[in-house]
Amino acid sequence: MFLEKVEKAYGFNVESYEKIKNIYKLITDRGIYCLKVSKYDLKQYNFIISAMNYLIDKGYEHILPIYKTIEGENYLAIDDGYAYLTDFIDAKEVDFKDLTELKMCIEAIAKLHLASRGFKYEIRIRDYYGRWIEKFKKRSSELLYFRAICESKDEKSEFDSIFLKYFDLHYRQSLKCLKDFETSNYFKIMESHKRLHEICHHDTANHNFLITHENIVLIDYDYVIMDTHLHDLASLLIRNLRYGNWDIKLFNFILNEYSRYIPITLEEIYLIFCFMEFPQDYWQVGLQYYVEKQPWTEENFLKRLNRVVLDAEGRFKFLSELEGLYGKYR
Hints:
2 domains; globular; Kinase-like_dom_sf; Spore coat protein S
């Protein structure tokens, strides 16, 4: 059992433990800890730990410090992955619909971007600067691949029929996204942003923001990358607006709150619009169904797809309004 290795590495005795998603809550003779396990290769894992330690060293207050092993290491190898140790905190996940809690999240992510500035890594890894267009071109092509798989079936499922029904609408939007990016100042803006050497958390879901009685903590840095702060900001906007919340007032609220820490130019808002244009959720559910073949029920897949297509009308209307406001700043 890997817990024996953990006990030896940190010098405590585990009295009991509980597995919660990808962490272990350890009750020990020295207190309660969180063991965060990841199944990455060592090169990827070293990048994650380096990024976290950089934030900690810069005094970023919304991250849990990492405990070193007895031998002074930041992590240990266990089974087919690696793990690091932090305190286990008594906290609740934030509710994005609570504007006070949302403001706290915006502040936490903006301060992460500020604290991360100047981060450099010895090899080029997880570097997304200037790669948005490349990424969206690839995903646009993958949409065609998903359709080809679907059309090759002799007997189509209900999921297939719905996916095909809404394919042209979403594929055309992926092409418009690419066209708008290519006529923007994306590369020019990224050249200036790249000099900041920022870190993006890259998973700004509400369950990664935990509120304690005295602080908000941002957890799970498994997807951390190097990229412009606009990446996390655009993702946070999408997470708050999608599935029936497409409201320009909410968009402006998040943008204005973030701009209190890092000002956003009109040209940068246009890049955020372009980022939001790509039909990410439609692509994601297609990938999960046709390529990854996630072990979910057909009912689960249908629920996910229907949620996306039912959201399409409000999403398209919002994007049209946003383009009307910021399209001239391309």
